[in-house]
Amino acid sequence: MEKLIEILKGVCPFVDFEKEESIIEDHLIDSFDIISIIVELNDAYGVEISAEDITPENFNSAKSILELVEKAKEQ
């Protein structure tokens, strides 16, 4: 989780990813931020995030993003 938090803070330093659980619902990041996060996740973890996985539920918290990364690693 620590590595993920570093990545997320690098993209969106104004968001407290360790505490926020409604990142999308509270409009703390936008679609450009999501694309930037996906690029960083692809580079850092060597995973491919599919278009079907780009949903609010998968990007609403650091925990949900980590779950998405773990799921992508399995594929």
Broad structural category: mainly alpha
Overall body shape: globular
Q: Let me know the largest β-sheet.
A: none
**Continuous helix count:** 3
Radius of gyration: 11 Å
- The tally of strands reads 0
Series of H and E elements? HHH
Report mean pLDDT, rounded to a whole number. 96
Q: What distance lies between the first and last C-alpha atoms, to the nearest angstrom? A: 20 Å
Q: Which percent range fits the helix content? A: 40-55%
Taken as a percent bin, the fraction of beta residues is: under 5%
Enumerate the spans where pLDDT stays under 50 for 5 or more consecutive residues.
none
Q: Can you describe this structure?
A:
With 75 residues, the protein is mostly helical. The chain contains 3 helices and no strands. α1 packs across α2. The radius of gyration is 11 Å and the shape is globular. It starts with a helix and ends with a helix.
